[in-house]
Amino acid sequence: MDSCFEYEMSDIEIEDPDMIYAYPGNKIAPGGYIWVFPKDDDRANVGVGVSGEKGKTAKYYLDRFIKSRQGLNKGSILEVNVGCIPLGDSLKELVKDNLMVVGDAARQVNPIHAGGVHNAMLAGKLAGSTAAETIDLEDLGILKRYELEWNSSKGRQLERILRMRYFMEKLRDDDMDYLAKFLDGDDLIRVSEGEWGVALKKMAKHPRFLKLLKNFL
Ligand SMILES: Cc1cc2nc3c(=O)[nH]c(=O)nc-3n(C[C@H](O)[C@H](O)[C@H](O)COP(=O)(O)OP(=O)(O)OC[C@H]3O[C@@H](n4cnc5c(N)ncnc54)[C@H](O)[C@@H]3O)c2cc1C
């Protein structure tokens, strides 16, 4: 379970409002990252997710970061959003009798970037259409199709991404700095979607990652 704290901020300086900014690091946000997701030229969601196992609160890490950044520390806070995000293994049993679970309740969250809106919408759509068919055909057994379809498609992808998260948890801050030199934005997006082939090939060229990769594969 990651602990998250987010401000919607205005009157801030954003280098490029068409980019999203992510700051991982064991000191900056243990087990997670700080994000700046621009919504406009001078307005953004500025938040943090940290592992629930660490000592300090998510708010502590976010406030400390904002205070240290010139472009942010004079901004205004419009809104505060807080909550937990379930990370780790997804629920495998998504249907029981006449009940279906979707979204955070089913832990259908991307284990690397902790985004859950997209998956919750996909699962909701799939569960909704399965429920409609169940009502039409008056057969409760049809509900299980939602579980089967999810687990064999998106569920599998989330499992792959979780393995990558476990690998990333082993990285030190200097490993991450090093990686950032030869993995570009596209590589990182692919990794967060469970397609790590290109990134692994690039990492395998560097002796310092070979040992870590051996344990991962
Ligand atoms: C601070 C923060 C920032 C985030 N930022 C992002 C982001 O930028 N992008 C992203 O993809 N994900 C983000 N997430 C994760 C994302 O919000 C969730 O993964 C997503 O909202 C899950 O959708 P859901 O429908 O499963 O649950 P929710 O959005 O939590 O919806 C559940 C709803 O059920 C209602 N409810 C609960 N109990 C009951 C009850 N007994 N009866 C009736 N209603 C009930 C709740 O009030 C709520 O409205 C963030 C999470 C946090 C905490």
Report what the structure shows.
- By secondary structure, this protein is α+β, with helices and mostly antiparallel strands.
- It has three domains: 2-85, 2-Layer Sandwich (D-Amino Acid Oxidase, Chain A, domain 2); 95-159, no CATH class; 170-216, no CATH class.
- The chain has eight helices and seven strands; from the N terminus they run ββββαβββααααααα.
- The protein has helices at 58-68, 117-137, 144-152, 154-169, 173-182, 185-192, 197-204, 207-216, and strands spanning 2-10, 21-24, 33-38, 44-51, 76-85, 95-96, 99-100.
- The strands form two sheets. Strands 2-3-4-1-5 form a five-stranded antiparallel β-sheet, with helices on one face.
- Helix 2 packs antiparallel against helix 3.
- The longest helix has 21 residues, at 117-137.
- It is globular.
- 25% of the residues are buried.
- The model has no long low-confidence stretch (mean pLDDT 92).
Write a concise synopsis of the structure shown.
By secondary structure, this protein is α+β, with helices and mostly antiparallel strands. The protein has helices at 58-68, 117-137, 144-152, 154-169, 173-182, 185-192, 197-204, 207-216; strands at residues 2-10, 21-24, 33-38, 44-51, 76-85, 95-96, 99-100. The two termini are 25 Å apart.
